[in-house]
Known about the structure:
Shape: globular
Amino acid sequence: MEHLTVISPAPWTDCLACAGGPALARKAAIWMRGRGDSCALFAGAELLAVAYLVPIDDGQLEFCLAVLPVARPHMLALCRFAHSTLTAAHENGAVVVCRVVEGNRAGERMARLTGFHRVSDTFWHFGEQDGKDREQPFRRGRQGREAAGGTEPPASAGGE
């Protein structure tokens, strides 16, 4: 799989290409590009998506990802890129939100993969939910020596 190439700010033509045909979507893309930060994501020379991070009235940032159908094989890479970028913003105090239309299973899955959690029917917040923080180490349960019941992890036991 090719590496993703990022161009920021996203060129106007790429914003319009990802917006599609409806006039309202094209106006929204122009508005978001003009008001906030944007980047275009490519695999080789092929445009996959345009991501927007737009300030909204109450000081929060709204994340929007406009994806083209050709991006389907690259969806996990796009979600990982968005997660790492939004994590950096979140760690610096930004409150990032997104909206997913109720019943849009692909959009909901992408939001979860990116690091958002549902707050209401269409509204999602980025980061830890329910006030949990990750100051404590993340424990995955019993692994290695304890799970195998031996004194050495199975990979270093040498085999037979």
